[in-house]
Amino acid sequence: MFEQLQIINQRPKPFSIYTAAELWTDPHTAQQMLQYHLNEDLAMASRTRETIDRSMQWLQSRFGIDHNTRIADFGCGPGLYANRFAQLGAQVIGIDFSANSIRYARETVARKKLSIDYQQQNYLDFNSEQRFDLICMIMCDFCALSPPQRRQLLGIFRRHLKVDGKLFLDVYSLASYVQRQESAKYEFRQLNGFWSAEDYYGFVNTFKYDDEKVVLDKYSLFEAKRSWVIYNWLQYYSLDSLTQEFAENGFCITETYADTAGSPYREDALEIALVAGIGE
């Protein structure tokens, strides 16, 4: 038991273990994630409906979205933004790893008679002949990727943008990092049964990495007949570190905001939203 507790509380190197595929492909947790996405009052997997509506109003105004706009929504989930883009007349592709989310999104567009190309795949493998006026990645998904994965994804963005196309995404800020605290806790059916339909015990360890500005939420989960571990990594950014990373990967950040609804940038904002174009 002592050795098991040592393993549970062990601090791994940043991004050394990656378990996103398990989170999205396990039938139970994938269904739980979809329910979180669809809860319009809960800002966990997606933002609240009010926030999404405000963001869409600003995005339409900022980018002049209409029937001439070609958009790729990376990490589209069940289509909460992509559907709204299509309702504005845009030509939209939505890419997401979750089969549950894409299935729901396709059912929704069929019911609403919208035209959206929803693709169920890892967006790190995305490749298309199309070029886009706007590429979006919303809900700080970028922060969950390791440095090599982020470089790979920025390369994909760069290849698929039109020469004058724009990239819009958001990340967690250092103000948000400061609010995170290291902790260790233990709970029966942690997250109210999120991880399994069976009874289980969950140990949650939160580790902070001050040099890298990374936080890990490590979930060690135990049922009667199986155990598994989920690693949820998040990268946090200063405006300088964000600008440097994008410049190193061929992008020039031209605008920054405090949220995805276009609020003016503030150093104490918990997120940074950005508009970037392909650099010189």
Topology overview:
Blueprint: H1 2-8, H2 20-25, H3 27-38, H4 49-63, E1 70-74, H5 82-87, E2 91-96, H6 99-112, E3 116-120, E4 132-137, H7 147-160, E5 161-173, H8 174-179, E6 183-188, H9 190-193, E7 201-209, E8 214-222, E9 227-237, H10 239-248, E10 251-257, E11 271-278
Parallel strand pairs: 1-2, 1-4, 2-3, 4-5, 5-9
Antiparallel strand pairs: 5-11, 6-7, 7-8, 8-9, 10-11
Q: How would you describe this protein?
A:
This protein has 280 residues and is α/β, with parallel strands linked by helices. It has a domain at 29-173 and 238-278: 3-Layer(aba) Sandwich (Rossmann fold), CATH 3.40.50. It has ten helices and eleven strands. The chain has helices at residues 2-8, 20-25, 27-38, 49-63, 82-87, 99-112, 147-160, 174-179, 190-193, 239-248; strands at residues 70-74, 91-96, 116-120, 132-137, 161-173, 183-188, 201-209, 214-222, 227-237, 251-257, 271-278. Strands 1, 2, 3, 4, 5, 6, 7, 8, 9, 10 and 11 form an eleven-stranded mixed beta sheet that branches. Strand 8 and strand 9 (227-237) form a beta hairpin. It is globular. The mean pLDDT is 93.
Concise overview:
The protein has 280 residues and is an alpha/beta fold. 34% of the residues lie in helices and 30% in strands. Strands 1, 2, 3, 4, 5, 6, 7, 8, 9, 10 and 11 form an eleven-stranded mixed sheet that branches.
